Amino acid sequence: MFYYFARFICRVILVLLKRLEVRGVSNLPAKGGLVLVSNHISYWDPVVIGCAINRRVNFMAKSELFAIPLLSQVIRAVGTFPVRRNQSDRAAIRKAIRLLEEGHIVGVFPEGTRSQTGELLKPHLGAAMLALKAGVPFLPVAVNGTKGVLGKVVINIGEPLFYKTDTKTSRADLENASDRVMARIAELLKGC
Length: 192
Known about the structure:
- The protein has 6 helices and 7 strands.
- Helix 1 crosses helix 2 and helix 5 (126-134) crosses helix 6.
- Helix content is 39%, strand content 17%.
- By secondary structure, the protein is α/β, with parallel strands linked by helices.
- Helix 3 links the parallel strand 3 (57-62) and strand 4.
């Protein structure tokens, strides 16, 4: 309940103040697990993406955010869960896979941090590992305009990408899937 209330309030603010425009809404499947992957340029990206997607998105966020008392309560209330970066966080992986298998959307920023220049950074392999392990597609999303107070915010949602292997998933498979989804985000950014 809190998620949809917060989403409504934030969406109204974004439409009025930042002229939020969402493209590719028809590419979002009505149901089924998805690993939503996006570029990351601002702290506001999860809020804006959550407002643009008409399904609940459970974002993975760096564990350091959960040490901030009020922020921790708010982000937990909207379904965000912590992940320890730069290490194997088995609890976060198990939670993400459970959500995906239950048909939910898990939001991941494959770059692992915000890009200061707006250029796409080399992706980490976690998003690919989740999608391949849970057997769900990626939902590539490009976000533009979330940096700064002025200007329009544009979200461009791509078609789901399926990446499957016939054998046990290798590191090369994870790298190929990651590179493929980042290339698709780069294409979507051109439409922002």
